[in-house]
């Protein structure tokens, strides 16, 4: 286990339980007391947890984790979702991607897909994104044309935000906008934690013929601070579990197609 993987697991325990002792972490992860103390101090210094006497407590539920701490969460579900989303993309399509771990997985699948390899000088797929990490990772793929919006980067998520995002997209037309979200409900639609990222995602959706929300089960029925779009603006929801009957009814009423991608 790498140090980053261990930090991810420690943070996951704190988030799940709300308040956890050093002894509980030691027992769960099979590591020493000294190692746990160092890890908790590291997380506290980064303002990801609050140190308590003999352990640590989670911050508020609305707190946004940095991207590097989200990577290991629901990893298999996100890979399955990404594979299902990629099936919606045809050769030559232009696809908008916002930032996040799920859309990063989508970008990786699109980059590896042989059927999207293109021919000659024509790109197999064009990716339009406000996520710097996605643009960097795909920039070496010859068959992928990368277009990066303008904007000011957020260190928390590597996403560009601000009015330059919208002005960059004004003259584009995309076949798909694939949006990672922090929550999706019938009442509030697709939501995220940061209002600037919500606006950037909304701009991507506004120039797309179809809007696809890629959301694992932890996002279903959850509402966060900033609305991206109402539910009836979403064309397809790709998730990893069968949705509850009441949720399925709301999705059907809003005209949302549901695709369930089961992790292997």
Automatic annotation (TrEMBL):
<dbReference type="Pfam" id="PF00455">
    <property type="entry name" value="DeoRC"/>
</dbReference>
<dbReference type="InterPro" id="IPR001034">
    <property type="entry name" value="DeoR_HTH"/>
</dbReference>
<dbReference type="InterPro" id="IPR018356">
    <property type="entry name" value="Tscrpt_reg_HTH_DeoR_CS"/>
</dbReference>
<dbReference type="InterPro" id="IPR050313">
    <property type="entry name" value="Carb_Metab_HTH_regulators"/>
</dbReference>
<dbReference type="InterPro" id="IPR036388">
    <property type="entry name" value="WH-like_DNA-bd_sf"/>
</dbReference>
<keyword id="KW-0804">Transcription</keyword>
<dbReference type="InterPro" id="IPR014036">
    <property type="entry name" value="DeoR-like_C"/>
</dbReference>
<dbReference type="InterPro" id="IPR037171">
    <property type="entry name" value="NagB/RpiA_transferase-like"/>
</dbReference>
<dbReference type="Pfam" id="PF08220">
    <property type="entry name" value="HTH_DeoR"/>
</dbReference>
<protein>
    <submittedName>
        <fullName>DeoR family transcriptional regulator</fullName>
    </submittedName>
</protein>
<feature type="domain" description="HTH deoR-type">
    <location>
        <begin position="3"/>
        <end position="58"/>
    </location>
</feature>
<dbReference type="GO" id="GO:0003700">
    <property type="term" value="F:DNA-binding transcription factor activity"/>
</dbReference>
<keyword id="KW-0238">DNA-binding</keyword>
<dbReference type="InterPro" id="IPR036390">
    <property type="entry name" value="WH_DNA-bd_sf"/>
</dbReference>
<dbReference type="GO" id="GO:0003677">
    <property type="term" value="F:DNA binding"/>
</dbReference>
<keyword id="KW-0805">Transcription regulation</keyword>
